[in-house]
# Entry
Amino acid sequence: QVSLSQCLLPRPMARIVRQGLWLREVPLFSLGRPWKAVADFNSRLSLRLFEPRYVELARRSLPPGRGYFGYAESYPPRAGSTGVLAEVEDFKWEGDRGNSPVIVKACAARRFRILSARAEEISSGHPLYVAHVQILNSADVARRRVVEEKPHAIQGGAQLVARQDAVVFETVESWDVVGRVRAGATVVATGPPRVAEGYIMVPIQPSGAVELKLFEPVSPLPSVDDIEAVVRSLSASSGGRFRNRREHLLEKAAG
# Structure
């Protein structure tokens, strides 16, 4: 049996420098709901697979095969959607192996993002979906949560300053480098951040996209009206001691 760790394929994935983990041709099972909504409190899932497409999934996935399959959290699975790598803990065929229903018990191993998915026709009935996936690390998952919980933090027109030298990619999804931004330089967002293959990307003017973690929002300067409102408030609370500079100079000259 090939271990799960042996099947993780390292590939350079850096928006700057980083290695991503890829799995190819992963058969997918789905109930169209998040893993945590269908698994038990120990993050385990018990299934009876009887549809032809899922019996085929079991033939490919159960030991002595790869020992895992993918659980897609949306149906039909599509590029950009998420899922969980389900590692098989126990199974039992009800009849001939590969030709009968099977009971499977699996636990959550790692979260992943679907890079591409295709449908395979399996005899009759619904197709079996097979996908290339990217395994997400804890930082990827945490970064995605930030964007999902605060979707309006950065919008079109927001100015971002580079915390270090950064590259500009052709699009949010592209890996093609089309330019560079020096540390301290500013860019202007054309829309909110989007997660692409585990990275938080921001589209910028006039074109291209940058990785958000290398930038920070530029704090807007207060307007003249805002400053005058603060001065009036301070003046009122201090018995009128705060006046404009001209009045202060005239009073000083008269004295």
